[in-house]
From TrEMBL:
Organism: Zavarzinia aquatilis
Reactions catalysed according to its record: 2 GTP = 3',3'-c-di-GMP + 2 diphosphate
PTM annotation (4-aspartylphosphate): residues: D53
Alphabetically ordered keywords of this record: Phosphoprotein
One function term, GO molecular function aspect: diguanylate cyclase activity
Protein name: diguanylate cyclase
EC number: 2.7.7.65
Domain Response regulatory: 4-120, 158-273
Cellular component terms (Gene Ontology): plasma membrane
GO biological process, one term: negative regulation of bacterial-type flagellum-dependent cell motility
Keyword presence, Phosphoprotein: yes
Amino acid sequence: MTAKVLVVDDVHVIRKVLEAKLLAEFFEVVLAGSGQEALEKAHSESPDIILLDVMMPDIDGFEVCRRLKADPLTSHIPVVMITGLDQPSDRVTGLEAGADDFLTKPTNDVALFARVRNLVRLKTMFDELRMREVTGLSLGIANHADPAREAAALLNASILVVEDDPAMTELIRSQLAYQTGLCFVTGDVEAKQAVRDNLWDLVIVSLTLPGQNGLRLCAHLRSSERLRQVPVLVLSKVGDDRSLLRALDLGVNDYVTKPPDRAELQARVNTQLRRKSFQDRLRETMQMSVEMAVIDPLTGLYNRRYLESHLAGRANHDGASPRPTALMILDLDHFKSINDRFGHAAGDTVLKQFAHRIRLNIRGVDLAARVGGEEFVIVLPETSGMEAQMIAQRLVRVIGQEAFVIGDGRELQVTVSIGVTEARPGEAAEEVLQRADAALYRAKGDGRNRSEVAS
């Protein structure tokens, strides 16, 4: 995977060396020699990732990172801080400033490239989700972040820790004591059972489990469609670069070396939990946008667009099925007079209650859709025309027997007319709908409050 990398370092030689290495790996490279230049090029060049030196004369890397993460236009860009500082407190400062990783000079080239590719993969996914969130916000179907709610979710996150060393387990338990949702298991078998039975916000895996079981568990998490979005933080032994690189190549999100420093472990855990919260919010927005595209907002039934797609799919399916599909069109009688006499709010209330009664009186496999103002369609798979007529007659009775409540103690008697037909194998959706519509007009012409089957 290629990407555009912004390299920020005040030493010309270091910039050129990193540029040569990255170009050899087919990355596109942009160079900046100061903190201010880095901020400007982050806006003008839109890099996929930033490699940021800490010690610079104008604005140090920590402050550059804070400004990048505080700016909505650059906050999504992954930042890897590269520096000669090697104290745990320096790493924690970088992580708290918003850095996605913190590497010490001289960097291991393989580790650096693995981190770059891993973070670019994550950014690619988040970019797509962010675009959909922006669209959702503009349409009013997404919510802005709620800091108080997210802070509470951070403390109550469910975290699975897989570690077989009792001393290390107790150390991690004490360091993450503020987390209320910690769960510890000692081996990959227990871990696989735990991830099957629960949804986790973060999984922490030791790479020192016997028989490379830590790596196998990471592979299992990333190969499962249900689990691959769960962030994974691995605990790596100092000097075991081979296992760490394999873990990064498998797609784990981050790592901490054993024994972990308290502040660094907490910072990396919090970073992954915040990212998971952000990701969940984006996916929720995406799901809402999908539903908005196919769901009628007033009644909660499917809309015409979904119905047409569904009928096209059924036309292909029904040709191979021994049982027919029936379809009915329902139209509320004299609905315009309800709007004229009682107002559109009362009309909307009637439509909502009507949709609710439809749901209560059809099967789970049946599909109900609102296709116009007061016009609805029900698709009944594995149902003959005569069977559908009996269902339609029941719906006519259910709608007409009980009054509709429209507020302020007012009630209305509302009736429905229904046209019923049976789809022929391979028949176009338009033809089926036209035939059912013709039956509906006969029901209307014969006095309403009744159903008719297409001849």
